[in-house]
Write a structure and sequence with these properties.
This protein is 28% helix and 38% strand. The protein has 192 residues and is an alpha+beta fold.
């Protein structure tokens, strides 16, 4: 009789341990899920240190140079304000980076840099100024499609980008009238 009670207790303990391990693994997997939506008004869910090689590329970028030429801020202050979030921009499994700097923001618009990581370091694969950027599920040539949003007081503009094997190119552009929610296709500008 005591043997049956002991077996039940051991079985119950094993079930509890297995459930706990499964719940822990599920939580760990959720924590490893990388962010796909980045907006100027929202903090990045998880930030990482911007690697020095990426900071060097950012310091040489035209958007940063233009800002420094037009302001009295120091390069050290501007470079110190970059923040990065890990993301998967391509399908190689390496953690890539989405980088932004709120010091360079304008009204409802700010810069976003996307860097992929390779064995040779980080490569800038996309730059845009917008209200937000999304990394989408569709993939072309090993890179996820992107959606960039920007807005005025009365319109929301969205541009979808697809990687063509060498660079991202606009593939579809829309404008939504915010007072009527009417969305129409519009010509895409040549620059992201």
């Amino acid at each position: 009789m005591m043997n049956i009670g002991y077996k039940r207790l051991v079985t119950l303990a094993l079930v509890i341990l297995a459930s706990s391990a499964t719940a822990h693994a599920s939580t760990a997997k959720k924590q490893l899920t990388l962010e796909t939506e980045f907006a100027l008004e929202s903090p990045m869910a998880r930030t990482v240190r911007v690697p020095p090689a990426v900071l060097q590329q950012l310091a040489a970028h035209h958007d940063v140079k233009d800002f420094l030429d037009g302001t009295r801020g120091s390069a050290a202050e501007v470079l110190g304000d970059f923040e990065a979030a890990p993301a998967h921009i391509n399908t190689d499994g390496a953690e890539d980076l989405v980088v932004r700097n709120s010091r360079l923001d304008g009204a409802n618009i700010g810069p976003f840099w996307l860097f992929t990581r390779s064995a040779h370091g980080y490569n800038l694969v996309f730059f845009t100024r917008g209200l937000g950027i999304s990394i989408l599920k569709p993939v072309a040539h090993g890179y996820h499609d992107l959606k960039v949003s920007s807005a005025t007081a009365g319109e929301l503009f969205e541009t979808w980008y697809r990687f063509d094997g060498r660079e991202y190119r606009a593939k579809e552009c829309t404008s939504t009238d915010l007072s009527t929610d009417r969305k129409v296709g519009v010509p895409c500008s040549g620059e992201p």
